[in-house]
Amino acid sequence: IQLSLKDGNKLSVTDTVGGDGPLQVLGAGSNGDQTAQDLGIFTDEDVNADSFDGQIIPNTITQAKANSLADIIDRINEQTGGAITASLAADGVSLQLTDNTGGAGNLQVQSTAGNPDLASQLGIKTEEGGVASSTVNGERLIAALGSVMVQQLNGGKGLEGASTLTLTDRVGNSVTVENLDQFTSLSEIIETVNQSAADAGVGITLALNKAGTGLSVQDQSGGSSSNLIVGGDAAAALGIEADVSTNSVNGKHLNQQYVTSATKLSDLNYGKGISNGSFRITDQNGKSSNVNVTSSIETVYDLVALINSRPIDVKARINDTGDGILLEPSNAEGSGIGALKVETVSGSTAKDLNLLGNAKGTTGDEAVINGGYRRVLDLETTDSLNQVVDKLNASGIPVSASVINTGSGANPFRLNLTSKISGLAGDIVLDSGNTDLGFSTVNKAQDAKVFFGAPGESGGFLVSSSSNTIKDVIKGVELQIKSASDETVTINVEQDQQKVVDEVKKFVDAYNEVIARIDEYDFFDVDSEERGILLGNATTGRVRNSLQRLIQQPALGVEGPMRFLSQAGIRIGEGGKLTFNEDQFREAYESNPEAVEQLFAAYETQSKSPKEVLPGVTVQQEGSTSMVLGIAERFNELLESLTDNFDGTFKLAEESFNNQIKVAQQRLEAMEGRLDRRRIQLERQFAVMESTLAQLQGQNNALQSLQSNVNLAGQKLSLA
After folding, report:
1. What pTM was estimated for this model as a whole?
2. Averaged pLDDT for residues 53-74
3. For residue 143, which of 37, 166, 254, 492 sits 20 to 30 Å off, Cα-Cα?
4. Can you tell me the distance from the alpha carbon of 376 to that of 300, in angstroms, rounded to the nearest whole number?
């Protein structure tokens, strides 16, 4: 088998043997099929040819991401070599591109297949064919103060070219507002429509609805001879199309997009972020592939590209409501035999993305897995208050629902909703449609804010936190905000020795718990002769010995008066468990806190030096060498060596157990084979024996008959 590079982005596999059998590339080892899939050459079906080209291998771009408009402007100017100049437009809220070539053709700006939304998000995408101008003036990139961008509505589709709105009040007065597609902020549309209605004497006003998720239309004309009518293509796009005999219309949810390809994963999951880990996607045809999300996957674009690089018939994209990632079949709809499925391999990544689970069906809207964070709860008119609470709490929405008895009035019971997420990120946006449930805000969602420094003095700064705890502003200091104050508060910082003692106790308890768990499986009771299932197991003994040996060793490279845990009151006691002398520890900490800190937490590494692999050829070795390590850091190294997913002690032990199970299964299969062969042999012997007995029986009958004939002949002779 020979591998070669094809088109600079994929591998070509060639069989040089020339045999008649199929060409296959399968998985092996602890990673299964994953490596072959990552290289794009895994064959889930036999290849009846001497060679085949693999799939495109995603490239890790080493160039730093653009993090600001200034970065984007610099990147365009650098990579076009001055042929196109990018700059901030005169309005200060959009980009401008200038063609400096002086050519006669059109100036065209389009997105690439790798990132089909980028040009639109930057507001500089032109229609197909470009513009007959040397300048492209981009669209507004930020909304007016207190508003949202029109292009963010309807999941990022905007008004889709809709531009006309006709309003008729209940008196019968009417006005048509045109060219609404020229506005970039929703507030501009509202102001323009209201001003046009007022100028035409139409008693209608637009405003945001109570939930802030859509528009409301109010008829203030005082009439009743006509219906309140809202029409035109923009009415449908804005969710306010109506022809009703009421004085108000509560518009539909406008689905403001807040998840784009540039959204950071750390901003998803209601601000809690997405944890690193792996999940497995299985397409409708049963093909599966793992998606491993690491710290290098930073944005929604990175994640979508990673999923779409997997060799399965699944496509990932931002959903139509613009609030999450959607998985859908990429093969012909309905051609699969099963539903899409997402399973957890490690971590909570799939759950954090709202993708964990199965699609409801194999066709249409039921064939997808929608990871949107906006939830719609279906209620029945017959639902009781307790049933509503049960549905809310079972929905997976990060809100706790309960019933409160106020103790007053004929109906004292109230539905209470409390966000499970603290700070401004936990703000509950509740849209009950045209039904007014009478909700009111009890506690407003907000972050805790503290200003460091005296008011009016330079050098002061504002710090915010989603909880009442502020950390890391002052090293080693944790601030608990008790109440708001307009007065300057002086903070006196003192050492919290009890917290240090408590953390050391946790360390001792955790160590003893590990030893106790080992003892549950590795023991021998002399009296009852009961054995633990891991008695004598080499891995169990190695782990126990490694832990106990490390406890008695000094901190690596630490120079000072304290190098052993015994000097801080921690010793090995009965049964190999630790004992903690709190008085000795406090005395050591009070006399020399820095020495105690070094004993536990000292950490200093050095990059590995270059290595000469051949005469005159030197390579830089990856990784680093530990120079100074406190006991806690040494424990960290030990635990990593025990739990490493590739060559850790536990992983090797697992593989050993799996091999033993495999060998036992092979032996069992071999024994079953021998038993089957022995059974067949015995059955054949039994059949031969039965046949022989039958023959003997026949011979016996013949002899008896012959004997009878002889006796009869003798009797006749005697009579004669």
Report:
1. 0.63
2. 76
3. 166
4. 23
